[in-house]
Amino acid sequence: MKYFWFVFFCLFVLGSNCFLNNDSLAAGSNVELEHQEWTFDGFFGKFDRQQLQRGFQVYREVCASCHGIDYIAFRNLQALGYSEDQVKFLASEYIVEECCDDQGDIYDRPAIPADRIPNPYPNDQFARASNNGALPPDLSLITKARAGGPDYIYNLMVGYVDPPPEFEGQLMDGMYYNKFYEGNQIAMPQQLYDELIEYADGTISSKSQMALDVTAFLHWAAEPTLEVRKRTGIRVIIFTFIFTLLAYFLKRRIWMDLSK
Q1: Distance between CA atoms of 64 and 71, rounded to whole angstroms?
Q2: Which domain holds residue 142?
Q3: Phi, psi angles (nearest 5°) of residue 258
Q4: From CA 185, how far away is CA 63, in angstroms rounded?
Q5: Distance CA 121, CA 63 (A)
Q6: CB 80 within 8 A of CB 53
Q7: Is 144 among the domain residues?
Q8: Whole-number CA gyration radius for the chain
Q9: Side-chain half-sphere of 206: how many Cα atoms within 13 Å?
Q10: Using an 8 Å Cβ cutoff, are 216 and 39 in contact?
Q11: Is 105 exposed, middle or buried (0-12, 13-18, 19+ CB in 10 A)?
Q12: What is residue 251's predicted lDDT score, i.e. its pLDDT?
């Protein structure tokens, strides 16, 4: 029986590692992150569709002027709770380049749901030239690409404070102090302020609320199949548990017959 519980414990630990993110430090620093209670945490966590729509609104109105989400197509937004008609309308507000017309020329057209959400810059060189040499990262996988995951992204967006006295004179031109960023100097200025936008659902748009919402949206962008993966993982663990239990009793039955 002790081997059965050992196998079950191993499965539980492996399953926990698949679902939970225990990183608690900011990327490249020793600053403790303030952990948030995300709806998608844990074995049974799932995305809050209303929060995802608010986060997409923050991305569109605040982040999209500098950062792309190149791996997300408009049709993927139906997973946020938007209807097909709403997605078509959202797509039609964007212009994309199409190749080619009858003369072989590139022309502009309204986007359709099958198109990916356009990047604000045509190329990296143009992006750097527009941002004093800094390249704004694509946000499609940003919560998976940083130690601390969603907690780090949230803390980064609310971590703009006045430099401490010991940092005086060290802040370079064009840089901003952020207590959670490695080296504390970041090229991106503070983007979120209280009541910066007006939420479509009437939620009060505090700085913290907007940071929570857009981080949740970005985590969905990085892991759109998170809920499916968790459901599949739970089914696999349950199946393996039942199979292990049956195998244990079968082994006992076989050895009981052999010992007679």
Answers
A1: 14
A2: 2-72+117-258
A3: -70, -25
A4: 19
A5: 13
A6: yes
A7: yes
A8: 24
A9: 4
A10: yes
A11: exposed
A12: 81
User: Can you give the pLDDT at residue 21?
Assistant: 46
86 in a structural domain: no
Question: Residue 33 sits in a domain of what CATH number?
Answer: 1.10.760.10
pLDDT for the residue 17: 45
The number of distinct structural domains making up the chain is 1
Domain-embedded: residue 219: yes
pTM (predicted TM-score): 0.84
pLDDT in tens, 17-35: 444 444 455 555 567 899 9
Q: How far apart are CA 184 and CA 43, in angstroms?
A: 34
Task: Give yes or no for a contact between 226 and 47, defined as CB atoms under 8 angstroms apart.
Answer: yes
Which residues does residue 160 pair with via DSSP β-bridges, in sequence order? 178
What pLDDT was estimated at residue 35?
Answer: 94
97 phi and psi, to 5 degrees? Answer: -90, 140
Residues of the chain with pLDDT under 50: 1-9, 11-23
CA distances from 52 to 95, 100, 135 (A): 24, 35, 26
Interior angle at CA 172, CA 170 and CA 175, nearest 5: 120
Amino acid at 214: V
> How far is Cα 146 from Cα 65, in angstroms, rounded to an integer?
22
Query: Is 134 inside a domain boundary?
Result: yes
Cβ atoms 158, 192 nearer than 8 A = yes
